[in-house]
Q: What sequence folds into this?
């Protein structure tokens, strides 16, 4: 599912997923060859995203989508409900629920503090 390094030129319409982090050495990225679950990619890359329930219950894994929202599938009902309870910011997703699609572009995201995200303050 993950190609190390840049996408080979002959593969088209593959997204790059970038997990931002405060420390440069903790930034993780991968070019993915097909759609999939962010949680699986985060686990595979050991990205700086905290998880707890992994079932859209706790909000621990809330992330800000900095770039590339169009490459994510729409939130399922459970994710949409919890995001609304956490302030309803349009730029947030639950990393344990969100799925990315095949397509050309970049998805850039970073973990938020679950308590901070509840304020509803957009950056
Ligand atoms: S880990 Fe609990 S909502 Fe994602």
A:
């Amino acid at each position: 599912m993950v190609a190390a390094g840049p996408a080979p030129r002959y593969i088209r319409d593959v997204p790059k997923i970038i997990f931002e982090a405060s420390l440069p050495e903790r930034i993780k990225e991968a070019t993915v060859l097909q759609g999939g679950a962010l949680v699986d990619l985060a686990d595979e890359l050991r990205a700086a995203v905290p998880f707890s329930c992994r079932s859209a219950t706790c909000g621990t894994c809330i992330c800000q989508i900095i770039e590339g929202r169009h490459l994510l599938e729409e939130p399922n009902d459970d994710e949409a409900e919890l995001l609304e309870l956490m302030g309803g910011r349009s730029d947030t997703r639950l990393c344990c629920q969100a799925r990315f699609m095949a397509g050309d572009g970049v998805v850039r995201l970073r973990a938020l503090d679950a308590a901070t995200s509840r304020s509803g303050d957009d950056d």
User: Anything to note?
Assistant: The pocket of FE2/S2 (inorganic) cluster is lined by residues 51-54, 56-61, 94, 96 (CB under 6 Å). Residues 118-123 have pLDDT under 50 and may be disordered.
